[in-house]
Automatic annotation (TrEMBL):
Glycogen debranching enzyme C-terminal domain residues: 279-641
Organism: Micromonospora cremea
Pfam family, one: GDE_N
Protein name: Glycogen debranching enzyme, putative
Gene Ontology biological-process entries: glycogen catabolic process
Span of domain Glycogen debranching enzyme bacterial and archaeal type N-terminal: 20-227
Alphabetized Gene3D superfamilies for the sequence: 1.50.10.10
GO molecular function, one term: 4-alpha-glucanotransferase activity
InterPro entries for the chain: 6-hairpin_glycosidase_sf, 6hp_glycosidase-like_sf, AGL/Gdb1, GDE_C, Glycogen_debranch_N
Superkingdom per UniProt: Bacteria
Length: 647
């Protein structure tokens, strides 16, 4: 894997160290997450974040273990880091960090206090909500190490305040049980019990959300580090509290071995691919410990069907996980209703509210069969896939239907945003894209052709599918090219002066990246034209991927910043989306255009934000600072897929 490490000039400079985040997933939807500095900058940061019934319904448990070293002289040095609502940062343990490493995906800190060097490693027990934190004396000593446990038990999207109930902490043999929900275990436990008031999260402040919370100082662990190699370790776990996990050092070693196996199974061609393969692993989870699913992004997303299907090939087929992928596709097929794939919202509700998620599902099944040769799965799912086509031909929810006049797919209903550009401000869609969106119709044509191929493999008649594919393709080629030199983004859209259902329609030729799918998909309706692709790249391409809208558009928003309304308003109005680099590279390769230099910026990004991973979004204007989730499934999956495809 690529070497990710930082020395004292990054570790000791708070802005740099606190803007680089690490993630250690547990494989069931929970995680440990924080920054290189050790400073919690988000409400979502913690050492034990526990999944609920769905991956998005997480709860924050153990927030931090703040180290303090008592030297032979009697001096006490605190190595933690917190920012307070006053603006003060205290303690400032990051100033004593001499190195941070991400080793096999696991974080390692190294503090130097004169001749004394202490190292911390952290891992989660794969398949269980359990974290292990190991502190080792590397040089110097003897010293005494204390670890102050700051705790809470709350929804990951919120805060807990001292004016509410006091957390219930019950002492047990080697530590404590907090709120009956999770257990802390380690040496020399001393109960404390007081509020730390006004802990500040600078990233939540930047996002226009409430930035402060109060933490419960439950107690501290302590142990002697007499000679190099001595350790003081703490474990915390949720779920079966009487089922004690292995020793902390064993958990770290097991996690390291597992991560190496994950990388080896993917058979990476180079260190970047190895890094992306391990990054991809974070998103594949067993919800409830059994069902395979995909977390769309950390730290706040759960499972979203569109994201899952766009990510499918990269996460499963490029990493040697086809068997798990098969299981996932079968489970998702069972959710089809009226020809639409279920979309599990972060609220936990099952919703049917995308026009493209189902079409991406057709694509994922087609790719699975093509790449693996698993025709048995194709045969098994064929009736379900045919039901999708039949429902779209007959018409289904939200005005989703095939226009019999041209065979193209139209969609839209008042107050809805059914494409991937689905942001809302105060409940009103920013980009409803009512009509015939370009990528939706590219996916429709791709789906018809893919299903025809699966039908043919099953030895069945494909004449009707081929006819419909031919009609839609001819209409696409006739209608989507725009006088501007690129493709229309939406055909037959309501004119701005008319509400949905008004008399006037127009064709929207805004320069957006959705058109890339018209050239990139396996059964794309158009052959790439170099001149057109260069026009698209000139307006949209950045080092981290294509913008969602060209900068010369009146609606362009160059900075994805501010409060929720401001951020959502610019989400698809110029913000960069790294996942779109996949379709861009595919289109260029099909057009025989070189893409050798396209990956330079995004590969450098692997060490700049979510360490070893790819962010959800970035600013549309330079320097294209990363925004959104630091760890995003489709961003990682698409980069891994197109890099592997080019080997």
């Amino acid at each position: 894997m690529i070497d990710i490490h930082f020395g004292p000039q990054v570790c000791g400079e708070l802005t740099s160290a606190a803007s680089r985040e690490w993630l250690v997933p547990d494989g069931v939807g929970g995680y440990a997450m924080g920054t290189v500095a050790g400073l919690r900058t988000r409400r979502y940061h913690g050492l034990l974040v526990v999944p609920g019934e769905t991956p998005a319904s997480r709860r924050v448990g153990l927030v931090s273990l703040d180290p303090a070293v008592t030297l032979p002289s009697g001096a006490r040095v605190r190595l933690g880091a917190h920012q307070w609502s006053s603006g003060d940062v205290d303690p400032r343990g990051f100033e004593l960090l001499e190195r941070f490493d991400l080793v096999d995906g696991l974080p390692r800190w190294r503090w130097r206090i004169g001749a004394v060097v202490i190292e911390r490693e952290l891992a989660m027990l794969p398949g269980r909500s359990c974290v292990a934190v190991v502190h080792r004396l590397v040089a110097g000593g003897p010293v005494r190490l204390e670890l102050s446990a700051a705790c809470t038990w709350r929804d990951a999207h919120g805060e807990r305040r001292a004016d509410g109930p006091t957390p219930q902490v019950e002492a047990v043999a080697d530590g404590a049980v907090v709120e009956g929900a999770y257990r802390l275990a380690g040496p020399g436990w001393t109960p404390e019990g007081q509020w730390w008031l006004g802990v500040h999260h600078r990233e939540e402040a930047n996002r226009g959300l409430h930035p402060d919370e109060d933490l419960w100082y439950a107690g501290r662990f302590a142990g002697e580090l007499e000679r190099p190699g001595d350790t003081v370790s703490v474990r915390a776990w949720a779920g079966r509290l009487d089922d004690e996990p292995p020793p902390a050092a064993e958990i770290v070693a097991a996690a390291r071995r597992r991560n190496r196996r994950v990388v080896a199974t993917a058979k990476p061609a180079d260190p970047v691919e190895a890094t992306l393969a391990l990054a991809a692993d974070a998103f594949v989870v067993r919800t409830g410990g059994t069902a395979v699913d995909v977390v769309a992004g950390y730290p706040w997303f759960g499972a979203w069907s569109r994201d899952t299907m766009i990510s499918y090939e990269g996460l499963f087929l490029c990493t040697g996980r086809a068997d798990e992928g098969r299981e996932l596709l079968r489970a998702y097929a069972a959710t089809l209703s009226e020809g639409m794939l279920a979309n599990t919202a972060d609220t936990g509700r099952v919703e049917y509210n995308t026009v493209d998620g189902t079409l991406w599902f057709l694509h994922a099944v087609s790719r699975h069969v093509t790449v693996t040769g698993d025709t048995d799965l194709g045969d098994e799912l064929l009736p379900a896939l045919r039901s999708v086509i039949d429902a779209h031909l007959a018409g289904t929810r939200y005005g989703i239907a095939v226009d019999p006049a041209d065979g193209l797919l139209t969609q839209g209903a008042p107050g809805t945003a059914l494409t991937w550009m689905d942001a809302r401000v105060y409940g009103v869609p920013v980009t409803p894209r009512t009509g015939k969106p370009v990528e939706v119709n590219a996916l429709w044509i791709n789906g018809l052709a893919g299903l025809a191929e699966l039908t043919e493999l099953a030895g069945q008649d494909t004449a009707e599918l081929r006819r419909r594919h031919g009609q839609a393709t001819a209409s696409f080629r006739d209608r989507f090219p725009a006088p501007s030199g690129w493709l229309h983004d939406v055909l037959d859209a309501p004119a701005p002066a008319y509400p949905l259902g008004g008399a006037a329609l127009h064709d929207d030729d805004s320069l957006r990246p959705n058109q890339l799918l018209a050239w990139s998909l396996p059964f794309a309706p158009l052959e790439p034209d170099e001149a057109t692709l260069r026009r698209v790249a000139a307006g949209l391409l950045t080092p981290l991927g294509p913008r969602s809208l060209a900068p010369d558009s009146p609606e362009f928003v160059g900075r994805h910043r501010g409060g929720p309304a401001e951020r959502d308003g610019g989400y698809h109005q110029g913000t960069v989306w790294p996942w779109l680099l996949g379709p861009y590279v595919d289109a260029c390769r099909r057009g025989k255009m070189s893409v050798d230099d396209v990956f330079v910026g995004i590969e450098s990004h692997l060490t700049e934000f979510g360490l070893g991973s790819v962010s959800e979004t970035a600013d549309g204007l330079a320097p294209h600072a990363a925004t959104g989730c630091p760890f995003q499934a489709w961003s990682v999956a698409e980069l891994l897929r197109v890099r592997r495809k080019g080997q």
